[in-house]
Design goal:
55 strands; alpha+beta; four-stranded antiparallel beta sheet; elongated
């Protein structure tokens, strides 16, 4: 769907340089490209007036760029002519060579030596060193017999020469001969087909030709050459330089009755590979496609004009077919034919027949662009030369452009002297005439209609010769090469008086954005405007029916682009046409054409200061300069002013109006795509680059859509683009995107149908409906109240119907009556409600929408929308099944048939068993039976159950129903109403389902309340909630059970409060006291146990023992004195104090041993960390985190294993861990296992816990020491020893803590915060975690504080 469009042209004339003053002027005959200096080297030939055997050759340099366009002479030298140096004229092939042929066979720049190689037909090989200040020509060699053809390899390392002695030479870049062989070998080549005995020709598939093609064979007498064959040899290389092909005119032999063309393929070493099959009428042209899949030549068919008919056996030597048929034929590397292309040139049999052009024209040369996309065909006609540009898509060849040779002053018919493609710039074509060099650069462009909704047709025009293929994608999606309509162009002879009487190929076409118009432009200034009359909606008749609205000629300029503009005052149509004066690099001129009716109202020309600019399609007329500057044209003053500027020239541009605020006036936004793939936006204030890898774009009313080389289509809201230009420093946002097929390019977008048309690299089309376009149209329809249209779009494109509510909830709720009116189909409403119920909307919102829709449906027609009303009930969260069934009950009597269908529908929506249970819970057996019958439940399952329920009384029946439905609280309520005789059953039901709270609420303020409390208390007691059970038992007046519960809960105050009330005997009270005290001592509540023993057991000795066991020595001494039992002091308290002292000594010994071991290990680890840091920390590559290379093979331990396993487990086989085991492994990190990197941190934490334990021991010693000093000498000695041990341990612990938590300068430097990871990824987080491992553990673990030593006493017998 793309067209070749002329981008820029350059015309350099050598006539102004006064090249010759003789009667025989010089002529440009060859051109070469100097890539190093970005220049062209042109060769001119002039016959020596004094010596007919010599030709003077001059080399001219033409630099690129407007400031260096004047040609300069490089050097000149004489060379002998072909006839003077080589009197070889025998043989058919040689006789065809004309004496007027140019002498230069090949002109080429050698990049390694930066020299120009000139090869002439006389056989001289001349080089010109281009780096010298005064370059001179040097003949480095001469070929005997002359040169008939030559070609350099693509890598400039090999040269193929065909000599006049019928030899094929292969030379190096230094002109050393590598190979020499015959030009007419007899053998087929190395790739001779092998006959394996099967697969004969008559068994093969021959397509439309049928099996008759298997029997037909071309006799050798029927294979001849075309009369238009120039007799020269052609050589062409494949793009990779691995093979080359030679086309030579073979003379008549014993086996070949007439001369004919033969194509042979050679390897890089000049070894013959294959010989092409004989083709009658094959001509001299030859070109190998750079991509390597096709070798192209031309073939003539039919009889030769002006000759008598030949016999059927021998024929004319041309191909069998229509007279005048002329094909471009394709060969594969193996020499077999591979399709053809028929040229569209026609000949007039009545016109005079030329000796060189028997059909009135001939094909001079063929050539491929360097990217293999465009085939150039140089045609010599009687009325002048032209070059046709052909491209192929979807196996169809399109004629895209024609270049006509400009007529010279002395000859009416213009002639080209050479045609070639630029070796690097694939779109640049270089043509020469006898006195000028023409360069034309093309670009691919899509002619798509910019019309806006609701009149957007999505029309696209494709130029194919004199036809324009039109396809409106809004109405039809016709795959190329077909089209909805083929517009045949025909120019009247009155518009082309100086042109050949044929319709040339147009150079450009454009659509109008305001009307359904198409403008077609020819380079000579002929302009036609068609009214397309495109049918947008469905219907019968033509989709496109074009009518010519206006046709005219603009004037003697060279035009290349046309665009529609806003209509001027008094004009129906206004167009802007971009052109320049023919010849030279004239400035660009924009001709503004106003058309009123069928007449040309006026033409206004506005000239610019530069050339090779581009028109921008917009409401006003804008022109883009080659430097990216955008100028707006004012036709009134015939001037232009700058309105914006791109950072570089953008060939593909667009203009739109955007506003960042709904209330703001729209501003201009220019969008441009450069050939380098950069997508720019600009306005009058700033410009920004959106992407650097874009390959196509289009603009819709809401989005800028562009595709990238990463095969992604991105959708940039136009409002956000305006905001981006307002804040140039703001980062680019993430636009919505979707993946597309590799190499996809945008053809057009049709906003009205929410479609985007893409073309694949192979030429086929794909129409997609991107979600942003769909959502934009859906939101517009919702805002406009077009709910039916929005609903249809959502349904078609699978958009969640929640968009109706999410877009504007309150507005949609108010518009529900309109929504129901437009979406009136019951199934559609059901679909809408179901989508809401299953979507992510909050439950309250869904319920509100469903209720509003249901109310509107009930108001409109309850019976017609009964299914939708039921849907509204059941899709709510939670669903209201009972309301739906209640509706069926209301309608059951009035319309039973409707209810029957409604029941079937609600069973379809809801699970039948759930609906059966809901009906059963409504206690309506008729409804239950109706649901069961329509749900096709087995009567043997539900009828016995229902009969059993019918036999019960009402309350007990409901109890059974609710119990069946597992509504236990409701069932208990029904059972409570069934009578007092059901109370025991009710209590059993309460215990079974633990309905104690509900039972208490039911039987509160009744005589059964105490019994319920008793059952509740028993249940709490069984659950070991003794305290709550005691409270319930006291409410139930079950004091015995309450006492037992208090005793189990160790609530001894409440227990003995109740124990005294029943007046228990002293023995029972004492037994209770001993039991309770024993339990309290077991719970370390020794002080409370002593109180129980003293108050209720009256046992002083047991109380003192309990206090001493809890180290309450002061309280124990007080009790002994109070109750006058001094013997207990020596009997219980003194031994108890010594036992407490021994226990403390044992604890301190364990702490001292632990401290010394851990301090020693810490010192060892820190020494190792300094001396062997790599072995201690290990080095881990974070790039390996995403690579699973673990195997089941036992591996030797490495530095990585220190982070995962202990040394004793290194030999275990590894396996893939689940996420649960990985989390478990992470919890083990820092557990302190020896040999792991977390051991030091673990040791520091352990010492911190040791300090806390020592602080507790200090408090115990502080309470014990005073008592030891007051007892016997033995006790005082133990007190001094205890104080000494405690002091030593405190000093050792203090010294260890200070030493361990002491920071060195190196460690302080290492505690600096590490920079945050650059990427928020798992690998980056792991890297940060590894860095965290290198942080000093002292910085992670807080330094512990030792409590103040309040235990120190001045002892008379000990030094402390």
């Amino acid at each position: 769907m793309r067209n070749l469009t002329l981008w820029r042209s350059s015309h350099v004339s050598l006539a102004a340089s006064d090249l010759s003053t003789s009667a025989d002027p010089s002529s440009i005959t060859a051109v070469a490209v100097d890539l190093d200096q970005d220049a062209l080297l042109a060769a001119t030939e002039q016959k020596d007036a004094l010596n007919d055997g010599e030709v003077n050759i001059a080399i001219w340099r033409v630099l690129e760029g407007p400031e260096n366009d004047a040609p300069s002479l490089v050097t000149s030298f004489p060379t002998p002519t072909q006839l003077a140096a080589n009197p070889w004229s025998k043989g058919t092939a040689k006789r065809r060579a004309q004496s007027k042929d140019v002498e230069i066979v090949l002109l080429h720049v050698l990049p390694d030596a930066h020299s120009l190689a000139v090869i002439t037909r006389a056989g001289d090989i001349t080089t010109v060193a281009l780096d010298e200040d005064t370059p001179s020509a040097e003949v480095v060699g001469s070929i005997e017999g002359g040169v008939m053809g030559a070609a350099w390899s693509p890598d400039d390392t090999l040269l193929v020469l065909v000599t006049g002695e019928d030899k094929l030479l292969l030379m190096t870049s230094t002109f050393d001969v590598l190979s020499e062989g015959p030009l007419h070998p007899k053998e087929f080549g190395q790739d001779t087909p092998i006959n394996v005995g099967w697969g004969a020709k008559h068994t093969q598939f021959h397509g439309s030709l049928g099996k008759a093609a298997a029997k037909s064979s071309v006799p050798s007498t029927a294979v001849g050459a075309s009369p238009d064959d120039d007799g020269h040899v052609r050589v062409s290389w494949r793009g990779d330089g691995a093979f080359f092909t030679v086309s030579v005119l073979e003379g008549a032999t014993e086996t070949d009755a007439r001369p004919h063309r033969t194509v042979r393929v050679y390897s890089r070493e000049a070894a013959l590979q294959t010989t092409a099959e004989p083709v009658p009428g094959l001509e001299h042209t030859l070109s190998w496609r750079p991509s390597g899949n096709l070798i192209v030549a031309t073939q003539r068919f039919g009889d030769v004009p002006g000759e008598t008919a030949q016999s059927p056996d021998s024929g004319s030597g041309l191909g069998q077919g229509r007279d005048g048929r002329h094909d471009i034929v394709f060969f594969e590397r193996n020499g077999l034919r591979h399709g053809e292309l028929t040229l569209r040139e026609s000949h007039n049999v009545e016109q005079a027949v030329s000796e060189q052009r028997r059909w009135g024209y001939r094909v001079r040369e063929l050539g491929w662009s360097s990217d293999s996309n465009v085939l150039s065909v140089w045609i010599e006609r009687q009325d002048g030369d032209l070059v046709q540009l052909w491209t192929m898509e979807n196996y169809h060849w399109y004629l895209k452009q024609e270049v006509t040779a400009p007529p010279s002053e002395d000859v009416a018919a213009g002639r080209f002297t050479s045609v070639r493609w630029h070796p690097e710039d694939a779109s640049r074509l270089i043509l020469t005439t006898s006195s000028s060099i023409i360069q034309r650069t093309y670009a691919w462009d899509t002619f798509a209609s910019p019309s806006q909704p609701p009149l957007d047709s999505g029309s696209v025009a494709v130029i194919d010769g004199t036809s324009v293929l039109l396809t409106p994608f809004r109405s039809q999606n016709v795959p190329p090469p077909m089209a909805s309509h083929t517009l045949a162009l025909q120019l009247p002879s009155s518009l082309q008086p100086t042109l050949p009487k044929r319709t040339p190929v147009p150079i450009h076409a454009a659509f109008s954005s305001a009307r359904d118009l198409l403008a077609v432009l020819w380079e000579v200034g002929i302009l036609q405007v068609y009214d397309l009359q495109t049918r947008l909606g469905p219907g019968r008749g033509k989709v496109v029916d074009p009518v010519l609205a206006w046709s005219g000629s603009l004037g003697p300029k060279s035009y290349r682009q046309v665009a529609f503009a806003a209509n001027g005052a008094g004009a129906d149509i206004r167009l802007a046409v971009l052109g320049s004066d023919p010849g030279g690099d004239a400035v660009d001129v924009v001709s503004v054409v106003d058309i009123s009716g069928n007449e040309l109202a006026q033409t206004t020309d506005v000239a610019f200061v530069a050339h090779n600019g581009r028109l921008i399609v917009s409401s006003n007329i804008a022109w883009e300069a080659p430097d990216g500057e955008i100028l707006e044209v004012d036709t009134g003053t015939r001037s232009a002013s700058e309105v914006a500027k791109f950072p570089e020239f953008c060939f593909w541009t667009s203009h739109t109006l955007v506003s960042t605020d709904d209330n703001a006036s729209p501003a201009s936004l220019y969008i441009g795509l450069s050939r380098g793939g950069k997508l720019h936006i600009a306005n009058g204030d700033a410009s920004r680059t959106l992407a650097a890898n874009a390959n196509s774009f289009t603009v819709t009313p809401g989005f800028l859509i562009f595709t990238t080389t990463a095969h992604v289509a991105q959708f940039a809201p136009l409002k956000s683009l305006g905001a981006l230009l307002a804040a140039p420093e703001a980062p680019l946002p993430e636009f919505e995107s979707r993946r597309v097929e590799r190499g996809s390019r945008i053809v057009t977008a049709v906003p009205s149908t929410m479609s985007l048309v893409l073309q694949m690299p192979r030429g086929n089309l794909e129409t997609i409906n991107p979600r942003p376009l769909v959502m934009e149209i859906v939101r517009q329809d919702i805002d406009g109240g077009h709910y039916g249209k929005a609903f249809a779009a959502c349904r078609k494109h699978r958009v969640d119907f929640n968009v109706f509510v999410e877009h504007d909830e309150e507005v949609f709720i108010k518009g529900i009556p309109s929504f129901v009116e437009q979406v009136s189909d019951v199934d559609y409403i059901n679909l809408f409600l179901t989508s809401l119920g299953q979507g992510p909307l909050p439950s309250d919102v869904v319920a509100r929408i469903c209720d509003e829709v249901r109310a509107e449906l009930e108001r409109k027609d309850l019976k017609a929308y009964v299914n939708s009303i039921l849907t509204a009930h059941v899709v709510k969260r939670p669903p209201d099944h009972e309301a739906g069934l209640a509706l069926l009950l209301r309608l059951k009597e009035s319309d039973p048939e409707l209810v029957e269908d409604a029941v079937k529908y609600i069973i379809f929506l809801v699970d039948a068993d759930k609906l059966f249970d809901t009906a059963l819970g409504m206690y309506d057996f008729a409804l239950v039976l109706m649901v069961a019958q329509h749900a096709q439940k087995d009567p043997r399952e539900y009828l016995p159950f229902l009969r059993g329920l019918r036999a019960l009384d009402q309350h007990y029946q409901r109890f059974r129903i609710d119990d069946h439905l597992r509504r236990y609280e409701k069932a208990l309520t029904g059972l409570s109403l069934a009578g007092s005789e059901r109370f025991e059953e009710a209590m059993a039901y309460v215990e079974k389902h633990q309905l104690y709270d509900h039972a208490l609420s039911i039987w509160r303020n009744t005589d059964k309340y105490q019994a319920v409390l008793n059952i509740y208390g028993d249940w709490l007691f069984e659950r070991r909630d003794f305290r709550d059970a005691a409270f319930v038992f006291r409410q139930a007046n079950r004091l015995e059970k309450a006492m037992i519960a208090h005793e189990k809960a160790l609530d001894w105050q409440e227990l003995f409060e109740l124990a005294v009330q029943p007046a228990l005997s002293d023995e029972e009270l004492k037994d209770t006291a001993y039991r309770v005290s024993e339990d309290l001592v077991a719970k370390k509540r020794t002080s409370e146990a002593a109180n129980v023993l003293l108050d209720y057991a009256k046992d002083v000795r047991a109380a003192v023992i309990a206090l001493v066991e809890g180290s309450h020595f002061s309280e124990a001494r007080r009790i002994v004195v109070l109750h006058r039992h001094p013997e207990l002091l020596e009997e219980i308290i003194h031994p108890g104090a010594l036992e407490c002292r021994a226990r403390l000594t044992e604890d301190m010994g364990e702490m001292r041993e632990q401290l010394r071991k851990q301090v020693s290990r810490l010192k060892e680890l820190r020494v190792r960390k300094v001396e062997e840091p790599e072995a201690f920390y290990g080095v881990e590559d974070t790039d390996l985190h995403n690579v699973d290379v673990m195997t089941d093979i036992s591996m030797a331990p490495t530095m990585f294993t220190r982070y995962t396993v202990a040394p004793s487990a290194m030999s275990k086989t590894s396996s893939k861990r689940s996420s649960r085991s990985k989390r478990k492994m992470e919890r083990k990190v820092g557990s302190g296992r020896k040999g792991t990197v977390d051991e030091e941190e673990y040791l520091l934490k352990s010492i911190g816990k040791l300090v806390a334990k020592f602080n507790t021991t200090q408090a115990d010693c502080a309470s014990l020491l005073p008592h030891l000093l007051q007892f016997t000498d033995e006790h005082r000695t133990e007190a001094a020893s205890l104080q000494q041990e405690l002091s030593e341990l405190a000093g050792e612990l203090t010294e260890a803590v200070e030493e361990i938590w002491k920071k060195t300068p190196e460690s302080e430097e290492g505690t600096e915060a590490a920079p945050a990871p650059a990427m928020d990824s798992w690998a980056a987080r792991m890297e940060a975690h590894e860095k965290q491992k290198h942080v000093n553990p002292v910085d992670k673990v807080a330094k512990p504080d030792l409590a103040r030593p309040e235990w120190k006493l001045r002892l008379p017998d000990a030094r402390a």
